[in-house]
Every structure is written in structure tokens, then in C-alpha cells.
Amino acid sequence: MAVMDARAGSARVSLLEQQVRELQNDRTFLENILDSLDAHIAVLDDSGVIIKTNKPWQKYAEANKLGLPPDTIGVNYLRVCDEARGEASEGAEEAAAGIRAVMDGTLSEFRMDYPCHSPTEKRWFFMRVTRFAGAGPPRLVIIHENITPLKEIQEELARREEELLAYAKRLEETNITLKTILDLRESEKKELQEAMVSAVRQLLVPALERLKTARLDEAHKKELEVLEITLRELAASSIRTLAGRQLGLTPMELQVAMLVREGRSSKEIASLLNISTETVAFHRRNLRRKLQIHGKGQNLRERLLALT
């Protein structure tokens, strides 16, 4: 009987040893998984003390000479956040508040981005805090992931967007400047046309009228006629530019308008254009309508002269 009990006890011990080995293997397997991740991972107890870290967390602590044990086991992470000062304190207060909120159940999860620059490079990290599910004392998992490449892309995009906005503003300013220049040139062109028409009306037309009364041979009369036609065409061209586009005048209306400006009577205009006086009257009515001249008290010639 004693032998049998001894064998049974030995079997139970062997089973327990096997279960312990399996648990150790499972633990080693899980630790290897955690160590193979790029993220820095730590587990905190309900007071904020670190009870477990993975290899990336330990390497980071050692490489950055944080003045803590390499594995940071036993360090109160909340106290480190609370006591952070200087450049290292950026985001520490927010992180501590988030950890406490997950710990007391106010939040199921806490996340934040934060800068963690070194003397040689700029770095950004993403922090995530979650709580262990299930029974037992509260445990928190802290995960830090290096998101520097993502932040650099975001900064580059923001910089390029800023450049595009600045370029768009410069382009708008250039367009405004060009419009101002074009408006100025158009104004100068109009002034030049007005001056030319005024010179033709005030200087050349009276001179031509005087020459018509002089005794000229046929050759000089022909030259005078050509000169008058040329001046009339120049004046008509100016009127077309100054008023034709805005008023929508027809070619015949432009010719009638030019002759009315010169002070010609309807009969004279009919003779010069080889049309009837009724047709002249028709075009004069159209001119008055397009120039918005209402009532007999307003003079068509005065309005045409005012255009230039």
C-alpha cells in the first residue's frame, strides 16, 4: 500500500512539474512576443508602479540614460510623470491624468501624442493606456510607439500647404497688379483717343472748312477730299472704340453719330452717306435711345461730344 501511495504521489509531482514547465514555456512565449514588438510596453500595478517591461522599453531607458534601473521595474511611473520638469515635462501632466482616469475607471482607454526630442533628433511618440480585463487587482498596460516618420510627413504636408497658400496669395497680388496696370493702360489709351478726337474736332475740322472756301485747283480739292475722309475715318474709329462697344452701335449709326458730332444737319448727312433724310432720322432716334436721351430738351450732339 505504501508503495502505491508513493507512486501516486510521484505521479502528481510529475504532473505538477509538467504544468509548471508548460506555464513557464507559455510565459516565455508571451515575453518573446512582447519583446519582438517595436512598441515600448510596461505594466503598472494599481499604485502606478512598473511591474513588467519589454525589451524595447528597457533599451530605450538605457539608451536615453534616464537614471533609472534598465528594466525600470519597481519605479513609480505616475511619480515620474508628476515630478517631470523642464523639456521632459511636456505632456507629462496630461499623461498622468490619463493614467489615473483609466485606473479609476473614468476612462476605458487613454491616448495622446507627445514630443520627446533628444539633443540629436526630433522624436514624437503615441501613448496608449488600457486596463487589464477580468478579476484580480487592477493592472494597466502602457504602450509607447514611435510615430516620428508620421509626424515628419504631417509637418512636411503642413509646410507645403503653407507654401501653397503663400504662393496663391502672391499670385492673387500679381493678378491685382496686372489688372491695375491693364486698367491704367486702358485709361491712357482712352485719354489718347479722346485727345486725338478733340484735336480733329477743334483744330483740323475748322481748318478743313476754311480750306473748302478757298480757291483751289482740282488737284488740291482732291487732296482735301482725301484728307477729310481720312480724318473722318480716324474720328469714327475713336468713337467706335469709346462708345460702340458699350452702346452696341451699328456701323451706319457710328457714321451718323460722327457726322452729328461734327455739327452736320440731317440733310447734309443724307447727302454725304447717300441715304434719305428719313433714314437719317431713324438712326438719330436709335442713337438717342441707346444713349438714353429722353425729351427734346436734351441735345444728341452734346451727348456725343461728351463721350470724348
Automatic annotation (TrEMBL):
Domain HTH luxR-type: 242-307
GO biological process: regulation of DNA-templated transcription
The keyword Transport is assigned to this record: no
GO MF assignments: DNA binding
UniProt keywords, alphabetically: Coiled coil, DNA-binding, Transcription, Transcription regulation
InterPro entries noted in UniProt: PAS-like_dom_sf, Sig_transdc_resp-reg_C-effctor, Tscrpt_reg_LuxR_C, WH-like_DNA-bd_sf
UniProt keyword annotation of Ubl conjugation present: no
Top-rank taxon: Bacteria
Pfam families: GerE
Coiled coil regions in record: 6-40
PANTHER family: DNA-BINDING TRANSCRIPTIONAL ACTIVATOR DEVR_DOSR
Protein name (record): LuxR family transcriptional regulator
Organism: Desulfacinum infernum
